[in-house]
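Let us work through a complete example step by step.
Step 1: write down the sequence.
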Amino acid sequence: MKGLYCQLSEHGEDASFVFQEVVPPSVLLDHFVKVQVKACALSAVKTKLITELKLGPGLIPSGREIAGIVLEVGQKVSFFHPDEAVVGILPLDSEDSGLCDIVFVHEHFLVHKPEKVTWIEAAGTIRDGLCAYTALHYLCHITAGNTILVMDGASPFGTIVIQLANHRGAKVISTVHSSDDEQYLEGLHPTVARVVNLSSGKANLVENCMEETGGLGVDIIIDSGVRLYSGEDESPLKQHLPHKHEILCVLAVGGHWITTMASLQLDPPDSHLLYLKGGSVSFLNDEVWSLSNVQQGKYLHILKDVMEKLSNRIFRPLLDEPIPLYEAVVSMEMVQKNHVRKKQVIQL
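Step 2: predict the structure and record it as tokens.
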């Protein structure tokens, strides 16, 4: 039995992906479930976080969002039975790759897959749904009537955030980086209140947001990265990102800025502006649920609700065509380099 693994370089920055032969455990532990994988979604390996947690170096399992069928359960498993369809996210310290035929997972990291949801949809939605719930319900407590700015809304994560925010009765403004992305968002239902295309460099983010909100600003901002400085030191890949000062300018009084940047730096003037507005900054790290099992019940509730909303078609994920297993290495390399726009899901 083979699985896909990530090999970090000596400095822990560059990553390569290889299939490695693995030996399954001979004994199924009491609270573990043996799952036959039907589909596995690909997300970038968080090399820096793994290095900081001292989970590397060595081979790191790749492909953690899985959907499959229960083959066998441990003696103390109470949630699942053989032949049931399940979906879940392998924990960060798991030794199994989701791109194996068989994986062994603790029952507290799985939920039942609804019958109307396909294997590809389940695996491709579970992580982005978890991130969207974490951002909107646990970091900013979104309510009906809020105005939310979603940066890069035509991404797999941004699409789920927009749909969940609309479902909660919020007004959504979103940025895009191409005409194709703008056309995609304009075709979503419910519709986005305003789409700001930043590809030409002519659209002013602050002016568009203030015009849409009557000068009050937005209540919630979810970024996809920001520029910390203006100048020649910025790489071309970051030129389409808003400057942190733009984010602070469009934030309303009492607003919440949810950032995906682990290395965000706020200078004293930035902090003072945030203080004057009574705003807050929260860091979105979806791994926090599996790093601490203190709130395991909330975590499972989120996963169940994501699957329920997917089954009811409240979520329509942005998925690429299913990918065969023999193309997994190439697909994973593209995902790691952020060269894909749609969610990549391997069909086993």
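Step 3: interpret the result. The radius of gyration is 21 Å.
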